[in-house]
Amino acid sequence: MALKLRKLSYALGAEVCGVDVAMPMSESTFGEIYQAFLGHGILLFRDQDITRSQHIEFSRRFGALDRHETLPRDRHPDHPELLMVTNEPKPDGSPSDTKYTGRQWHSDMSFTTGPSLGSLLKSYEVPEVGGDTLFANMYAAYDALSGGMKKLIADLHGIHLSGTRKLANETTGIVRAEEQKRINPPVAQPVVRVHPETGRKALYIGEKVKRFDGMSEEESQPLIDYLVRHATQPEFLYRHQWRKNDILAWDNRCVMHQALGDFDETQLRHMERTTILGTPSGYVAT
Ligand code: OGA
Ligand code: MN
User: Fold this and answer.
1) What is the pLDDT of residue 2?
2) Residue 90 is part of a domain; what is its CATH number?
């Protein structure tokens, strides 16, 4: 079967048309989907009115799933393979722990030595307008750097911290951030990461990076800021406008993303994510 693909933006992403991910799918069809995933960095599947188990089963085709032990507060109570990203208040009326998930440029699980291969986020409830997610093509960002800058960053490692959200939940945010820091010590990741499957170089940076290994924060911050600004120029981006029952799959090894807070917070936004385990990368920074 030839997949029907529609590009989502100049920089990255493709919609896979006419596929119901809950239907039985041959190895060869999934192989085409996986090749498209490697080639486009993001795949969108619209109108996937499927169950949680079906979301999990389809995700497993990409690889073994994270059970989110490093993010214990954010897991679905019955399905540890699902990470909740929701602004729905808790049953006791207190604000959700994951209300501000992803509100900074990042790549999922970069703060661990087993950062994620990819993530599949499904939308259940979306606000009337906004609540968009921005994605950046980090191959393109790397390729566009000058030879001098490529040389300068070739051997740098960025120290990624967990629990660094700019916005914190009013009541549990601080406790959560402290907990996150305890569970996840700082991890150094190469700033230039060779994609284990395509062999291409991609920038691996973001707003969880606080400094470079062997350098002070003061020395590092200007270059971190530059690299994030460089990588997030409009021509490297795709902005996803969610509809209910979208599944968006992205490759964390060559794409970074950010949740935008461009919506009315009194409206419900509820998403659930599976996280595909990746190959080892980086080291615990001491
Ligand atoms: C995530 C994430 C972005 C969003 O699920 O990993 O960063 O827009 N979510 O909800
Ligand atoms: Mn994320």
Assistant:
1) 85
2) 3.60.130.10
For the CA of 131, the closest atom of ligand 1 is 8
Nearest CA to ligand 1 atom 4: 259
The arithmetic mean of pLDDT across residues 199-222, rounded, is 98
The pocket around ligand 1, CB under 6 angstroms, is made up of: 85, 101-102, 108, 119, 121, 133, 257, 259, 271, 273
Which tens digit of pLDDT belongs to each residue from 114-126? 999 999 999 999 9
Domain count, the chain: 1
Instruction: Residue 123: give the domain boundaries.
Output: 4-284
User: How many other β-carbons are positioned within 10 Å of the β-carbon of residue 171?
Assistant: 12
Contacts of 159 (CB under 8 A, 6+ apart): 186, 187, 188, 209, 210, 211, 212, 213, 285
Q: How much distance in Å is there from the Cα of 215 to the middle of ligand 2?
A: 27
The residue ranking higher by pLDDT, 181 or 52, is: 52
What is the atom index within ligand 1 of the atom nearest the CA of 83? 5
Q: Please state the pTM of the whole predicted model.
A: 0.95
